[in-house]
Design brief:
The chain folds into 2 domains: 203 residues, Rossmann fold; 61 residues. Helices cover 30% and strands 29% of the residues. It is built from 9 helices and 13 strands. This is ABC-2 type transport system ATP-binding protein.
Length: 296
């Protein structure tokens, strides 16, 4: 499968602090990819490296087969909506569209006008007077009208109320289907990822814990609850993701493609939130039998 982003041993250092280190990742084309992880995992740094705003300290990254931000043509292929939706408060909506047209050689003026009308933005209104949801919709419009092959969004709805989040994500889903975009979306809101994403990457300490198509990941993860049992007594094809024990009971989250026949276990499916938290919640005493990454 063609990758829209490939990173090998990628790292970024600010002073003495590594914001991202030893990150190896493949992001496939043709998906809406959810990137999730705890604060400090390196998500924003990775996205800024991917769009050419930062240069790597170590390792390599390619986007759409080229070095991020290396040429005007490469810049034109990637759209980026930052977490704080940076816009110019003193400019009107229409002035933002004219600025977008001047800066982007593949600018689709008709698409921009249609989206502005669709979401109810007034062209003469200054951006400083818009609500958070309206600013987010304008930022998304600017990203889409650029006609990118890859659209990168860093926590685009983190500060929005539930209604504005729903409207933004609905617009994103419609645009993705219509324009056949590849999308990389970073978010702490797992429910939002579940709504729009079909591919998931969990990033912890700048390393990929798990990556794959969302349906396949959910189908291969299970919660086992039963009498206390040491992990070494589990079948070799049951890879332990997380474990919890009481004096008499064990609860495991495992990953396996094989049927589970042991009658001692109560087997339940995981929600997306369960799966994400299990891979994020690493504790030193937990067994390390898991395979950290799936690539398909």
């Amino acid at each position: 499968m063609t990758a829209v982003l490939e990173a090998r041993s990628l790292g970024k250092k600010f002073g003495r602090h590594w914001a991202l280190r030893d990150c190896t990742i493949d992001i496939p084309a043709g998906h809406v990819v959810g990137l999730v992880g705890p604060n400090g995992a390196g998500k924003t740094t990775l996205l800024k490296l991917a769009c050419g705003q930062l240069e790597p300290t170590t390792g390599d990254v390619t986007v759409l087969g080229g070095r991020p931000g290396s040429t005007p043509a490469q810049l034109a292929r990637v759209g980026f909506v930052a977490q704080d939706t940076p816009l110019y408060a003193g400019l009107t909506v229409a002035e933002h569209l004219r600025l977008g047209a001047r800066l982007n050689p593949r600018w689709d003026a008709a698409l921009a006008r249609e989206r502005i009308a669709q979401v109810g933005l007034v062209p003469t209104q200054r951006v400083g007077k818009l609500s958070g949801g309206q600013r987010a919709q304008l930022a998304l419009t600017l990203g889409l009208a650029k006609r990118p092959e890859l659209l990168i969004l860093d926590e685009p709805v983190a500060s929005l109320d539930p209604l504005a989040r729903r409207e933004f994500l609905q617009a994103l889903m419609e645009a993705t289907a219509e324009h056949r975009l590849s999308v990389l979306l970073s978010s702490h809101l797992v429910s939002d990822l579940e709504r729009v994403c079909d591919y998931l990457i969990v990033l912890v300490d700048s390393r990929v814990r798990i990556a794959g198509e969302l349906d396949r990941l959910l189908a291969s993860h299970h919660r086992l609850t039963g009498p206390r049992r040491d992990p070494d007594r589990l079948p070799a094809d049951q890879h332990v993701v997380s474990a919890r024990h009481t004096e008499r009971q064990s609860t495991y989250v495992i990953r396996t493609d094989a049927p589970i026949h042991d009658p001692a276990w109560t087997v339940t499916a995981l929600s997306l939130e369960d799966l994400v938290l299990a891979h994020m919640d690493r504790r030193p005493e937990q067994p390390r039998r898991d395979v950290l990454e799936v690539r398909r």
